[in-house]
Amino acid sequence: MLAATEYPLLEAFWTILIIFGFFIWIWLLFVVFADIFRRTDLSGWGKTGWIIFVIVLPYLGVFVYLIAEHKGMTERQVKDEKAAKSEMDQYVREVAGSGGDPAQQIAKADELRKAGTISQEEFDALKRKALA
Q1: Which residue in 44, 64, 89, 93 has the most C-beta neighbors within 10 A?
Q2: Read out DSSP for 33-71?
Q3: How far is CA 22 from CA 7, 17, 26, 28, 57, in A?
Q4: pLDDT tens, position by position, 60-90
Q5: Is residue 32 a contact partner of residue 77, using CB atoms and an 8 Å limit?
């Protein structure tokens, strides 16, 4: 009971709030640093400038970066997700198309073409690959 009087409930909630805020802050730093290093439109000096700004004035640096680059961050994230999805789709097509006889591979590719999953050019490429 002595511990309950020395550390009231509101102080426990305040401690939880502070810890939560700390983890959110760390997460924001990771997001900003990852975006700075991922950028291809920014020179090495520009990246260095942003990193120094974020390290010297952490709160101001992160908030200014988020305000100034929010649209670019979104576009880069969407582009990366689309690239990852297309790589996964290509991998699945390669794995699903491997093995079996050429007639089965062509039939599967024709079904995908008719379903609209792949284009005529992709169908032709799969057909050539199966006949090779």
Answers
A1: 93
A2: HHHHHH-SSS-HHHHHHHHHHHHHSHHHHHHHHHHHHHH
A3: 21, 9, 6, 10, 16
A4: 999 999 999 989 999 999 999 999 999 998 8
A5: no
Q: Can you read off the two tokens belonging to residue 68?
A: 């100034």
CB atoms within 10 A of CB 127: 16
The first and second tokens of residue 10, run together, are 């509101």
Environment class of 32 (CB within 10 Å of its CB; exposed 0-12, middle 13-18, buried 19+): buried
Residues in the chain: 132
For the chain, the first-to-last Cα distance in angstroms comes to 80
The two tokens of residue 49 are: 């400038």
